[in-house]
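New to this. Help decode the following:
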Amino acid sequence: MNAQPTASGLPLDLEPELTAKGYSQFHQIGAGGMGTIVFARKESLDREVAIKVIAQHAAGDDEEVGRFMSEMRTVAALDHPAIVPIYDGDVTPGGVPYFVMKFLRGPSLEAHINRRIMEGSKFTVEQTVRLLTPIAQALDYLAQLPSPVIHRDIKPANIIADDAEEPGDVMLADFGIAINEDTTRMTREGLRVGTDAYMAPELYPTQLAQSPPQPTAASDRYSLALIVLEMLTLVNLRRTTSPQQWAHSRVIPDLTPDNLAPSDGPLAPSLNSFFATALHPEPQKRFASSTEMLDALATVAGTAELAPPQENAPAPHDANVPDSADTPPAIAPSNNVASPAPDARDESPRWSLRRNHIILAAVLAGVLMVLSVVGGLALRGAGWDAEEDVLAREFPLIFPENPGRAPWRNLDCYSAEPEAGQRARIICESEDLTLVGADFGTEDDRDTIVPGTVEELTSEACTVTSAEIPGQPGTWGVYPTGVSARFAFVIAGANAKEDRLSLPLC
């Protein structure tokens, strides 16, 4: 296959083909693991479009090509006002698949949430209902198709909203990992697919499971409920718990008036009852449909008129969830127990690696566990505490002034409980990268956790040491020297070895 791109981001043999069809003004507007998105305009129809082309690295992978083509066929067969329509699609003479879809000018819901975090302005229940009702109706439409479609990646980044303040177009995008009866077998056995921060608990395999867990409409609804919680509190629930707890012993915290927009404070008890049903660990005990869930949320605030039922739509039936006489009412009794657009690479100065190793008479200790979040079950406030503020001020090019989006790689940073020997700990995450910073108070205390053999990294401004964490492939420690020798960093992810070289530590 010839997927080599032109300056516009299109493959060499695709741009002439699209030009012959009347498209022009090509320029790349996005890229991800699955493909590249290119803007274009069709003058004859006065229409702006987005062209999705399979990623160059995936063009030679039969399974990836099959998944891409499946997305094209799946979405092309859908007809719903809140689902991005596909206008055209084909395979280039060189064998590169692509499809043409509606261009969505509005930012993602993720961008709206990030802006609200910076402003410290939570969504109200009424605003949340207004924004998410079209998405709920789209999910119910998918669930009631003759061959139901499960999206499997419901998250704020895949919801496009023209305006977060006033009614406008809200659409569900990115069906790259959606499945129906015809495409389920495309997923490798045992492979968990989706975004960890928005996945339902039943999608995590257990030792007792006889077969890999299968996503259902109920798991998509759970993801939507997590988005509701995030909009109301501006806190991503996944960021407040450890990976082990998230997978197997998830706890939903009680909301208090402080967690909500000021006007919604009195609604905290009713919202806790709502989330007890919406985020129930047993799929069959959640709301029976997404619109029922949004209706229940509207009822909490007395705004049911904002969530009209979908016209001419029969009540959806989730074939993958057994019928139950225990289907919960709109608001169930409280039950608090339940079973991180690709960012641009920064231009930070890079570190160079010296060949010599430095041997430190130190032992491996507790910092190797810094990637777990301990005790962080309560929704957190808006600022760093005094000890965290010292850490954040020491490294202003890495950490934000307050919890939220970081200047480095646009990571999501939040407080974490200090572990043994630490004064403060901050965790910053994205979907493919985790960075943990810790303050040990003194260099001697910090050195107790540094591995015995480290590499020396140098830049024009300073020198640090680094080592891969034993027993944790893809996880690297970075240890400042000199006046910053009391601090330590751990970075984990598929490209952690490379990413550590651009950490702006000095």
User: Anything to note?
Assistant: The first strand starts at residue 23 and ends at 31.
